[in-house]
TrEMBL record:
Molecular-function GO terms, alphabetical: glucosylceramidase activity
The name this protein goes by in its record: O-Glycosyl hydrolase family 30
Family membership noted in the UniProt record: Belongs to the glycosyl hydrolase 30 family.
InterPro entries according to UniProt: Galactose-bd-like_sf, GH, GH30_C, Glyco_hydro_30, Glyco_hydro_30_TIM-barrel, Glyco_hydro_b
Pfam families: Glyco_hydro_30, Glyco_hydro_30C
Swiss-Prot/TrEMBL keywords: Glycosidase, Hydrolase, Signal
GO biological process per UniProt: glucosylceramide catabolic process
GO cellular component, one term: membrane
Signal peptide region: 1-18
Glycosyl hydrolase family 30 TIM-barrel domain boundaries: 80-404
Glycosyl hydrolase family 30 beta sandwich domain boundaries: 407-468
Length: 621
């Protein structure tokens, strides 16, 4: 997803304005991931517990972990935060009385009285979490096929209360977005003739595309719009004892193209999300799909699971394909470490997060997975179906889902550290700043949020997540005083300060830009020095300069600079280490007394070191 320009949308506040006041909500962990939760409920220290409001103040000299929050620097737009309504959860909900089922759904989905979950994952046919015999929508006796899909039907989804439960969920929260994932094509489309394991037969790709289109239409006929579809859950894994299928990258590309044609021909707007598997396998799979122009155009986003590899892979994929949404579609997490893992997902461009499996019972049922599941966010008593209890994980996900609204932008914020506090922050469409702060340590942690000239000083208890919300004052958009700051003219004509030693080692190109269509690159095959800058006439006053940068690393020096403004040259050091994801470097409080300033970047590099720059900014503070 393309980022907002670094100049932002709102003005930088000043301490002369009325001080904002932040709401404070806490939830804490207890025995995270421990199977003892299946035995019954237990008291939890904080459960979406409202604390006293905190007034933001002018900056202080108090010693505390400082997290800079800058709402003017914006990243991905949030689609939603949620969980799954797979058949295990629906089976348990169906055993409840209507009143209790409504209560549980409101607890999950209601934006006012519940967790405000607004993104749900469902399965097309059964997964490993089901009480039923495995099925798809076109199962045939062994040896028979149905290429015309004559026997296609979602009747089992109706019989098993899947349709009625999803309808009830939509009644509780009409703004829900629902996406679907299949665990296996019908067995007759696979080389082993079974729902368990096996490979998709390429000859049936056109039939499978029609199958998915018919499923989307069948759900739509029931009043359930399917927002997006992943074409195969975990296509690189063939499970030994539950529905799964091997779908190669080349097959996935063909399937995506065939499905897009089906959607277009039938007036369906369902989006297609590619991959839907672990971080560590992304680079072996995604390029086959997204390096092809036709299949790239058919794909809205790339979906990930977190069972191998690190979330930073999402940033790598986003940087390579900046016009694609990034989604974290499956991973249950526990405790404050899990809340921090969620922060890492969002800090690595995930526009959505979905937990996996919402409610098992106290016998850890129903499920047909290969291992023993961890505790779910809601657990039902196996002997008294209307009795259920919420785990800390329900409250911890709600620290995000209840307050970060669809359409929110993730904004620039300091991450902190696991030894103090960590953070991710957002700006809601109503101009509310939401900062989620996580304390994984065994002691209370003092910290401060520094934002728009204000400071929020707070203490967060051990093993607790705090959500801090305040309304940001609006104002005129700060003007970026640089000409062609993102090189969208396709040249360097406006960049009038240049110096090099051995060779002209800068150019404007289109490879892996931060935003727009062009960027600046420093590179030469031999050791080189290169300066690229812009001199501007400006009114005397205080300014901020910034640039987004990536680099190979290895340079002797690499920096953003500001000079010729009436004082000593000031720099923001990018340094000699590799910068693998686009990162903003900023110089604050530049005092201009001469009516001019030069802003630019400088490389002192070894042979074949490269650095890339985009979206320079110079604004008056």
């Amino acid at each position: 997803m393309a980022s907002a320009l670094a100049c932002g949308t709102f003005a930088v506040g000043t301490a002369a304005s009325a001080a904002p006041t932040a709401q404070v909500i806490w939830s804490s962990e207890k025995n995270p991931g421990n199977g003892s939760w299946f035995s019954g409920p237990s008291s939890i220290p904080y459960t979406l517990s409202q604390q006293a409001n905190i007034a933001l103040t002018s900056p202080t000299s108090t010693s505390a972990t400082t997290l800079a929050v800058d709402p003017s620097v914006q990243y991905q737009t949030m689609l939603g935060i949620g969980t799954s309504l797979e058949e295990s959860t629906i089976y348990n909900l169906s055993r409840m009385s209507q009143a209790k089922r409504t209560e549980a759904l409101k607890k999950l989905l209601d934006p006012s009285t519940g967790a405000g979950i607004n993104l749900l994952r469902i399965t097309l046919g059964t997964s490993d979490f089901t009480a039923r015999q495995f099925y798809t929508y076109d199962d045939r006796p062994a040896g028979q096929t149905d290429p015309n899909l004559t026997y296609f039907s979602i009747q089992k989804d109706i019989d098993y209360n899947i349709i009625s439960t999803i309808k009830q969920a939509l009644a509780v929260n009409p703004n829900l977005k629902i996406f679907a994932s299949p665990w296996s094509p019908p067995a007759w489309m696979k080389d082993n003739g079974s729902l368990i394991g096996g490979k998709l037969l390429t000859q049936y790709i056109p039939n499978l595309a029609v199958y998915y289109r018919k499923a989307i239409q069948a759900y739509q006929a029931q009043g359930i719009p399917i927002y997006a579809l992943t074409v195969q859950n975990e296509p690189l894994y063939t499970a030994p004892d539950y529905p799964s299928a091997s779908v190669s990258p080349a097959q996935s590309k063909q399937l995506i193209l065939a499905l897009k044609n089906e959607l277009n021909a039938n007036g369906l707007s369902t989006r297609i999300w590619a991959f839907d598997h672990n971080f560590d396998s992304a680079w072996s799979y995604v390029p086959t799909i997204l390096d092809d122009a036709a299949s790239n155009a058919a794909v809205d986003g790339v979906a990930f699971h977190d069972y191998a590899g690190e979330p930073s892979i999402m940033t790598e994929v986003r940087n390579a394909y900046p016009n694609k949404n990034i989604l974290m579609t499956e991973r249950a997490v526990w405790g404050t470490a899990g809340a921090d893992r969620m922060a890492q997902y969002f800090r690595n461009w995930a526009a959505g997060y979905n937990s996996w499996v919402t409610m098992l019972d106290s016998n850890i049922q129903p499920e047909k997975w290969t291992g023993t599941p961890g505790p779910t966010m809601l657990i039902q008593s196996a002997s008294s179906y209307d009795t259920y209890w919420a785990l800390p994980e329900y409250y911890l996900i709600a620290q995000y889902s209840k307050y970060v609204k669809a359409g929110a932008k993730r904004i620039s914020s300091g991450y902190g550290s696991s030894g103090t506090v960590t953070n991710v922050s957002f700006l809601n469409p109503d101009n509310t700043v939401v900062s989620v702060v996580i304390n994984q340590t065994a002691a209370s942690q003092r910290f401060k949020l520094s934002t728009d000239g204000w400071e929020l000083l707070a203490t967060l208890p051990a093993k607790t997540v705090g959500t801090y919300l305040w309304t940001r004052e609006t104002g005129p958009t700060p003007q970026n005083l640089l000409t062609d700051p993102g090189f969208e003219n396709g040249n360097l004509a406006s960049w009038n300060s240049e110096w090099h030693n051995v060779a002209l080692a800068h150019k404007v190109d289109t490879d892996t830009v931060y935003t727009g269509n062009y960027k600046l690159t420093h590179y030469w095959s031999a050791a080189y020095q290169q300066l690229t800058g812009q001199t501007k006439s400006v009114a005397n006053g205080t300014y901020r300069a910034s640039v987004w940068a990536r680099s190979s690393g290895g340079q002797r020096a690499l920096r953003l600079y500001a000079k010729n403004h009436g004082g000593a040259e000031v720099t923001a050091e990018i340094g000699s280490g590799a910068v693998t994801g686009w990162t903003q470097y900023t110089i604050n409080n530049l005092q201009v007394t001469t009516g001019t300033i030069e802003v630019g970047v400088y490389s002192d590099a070894n042979a074949q070191n490269w650095a890339a720059f985009d979206q320079f900014e110079l604004v008056k503070q």
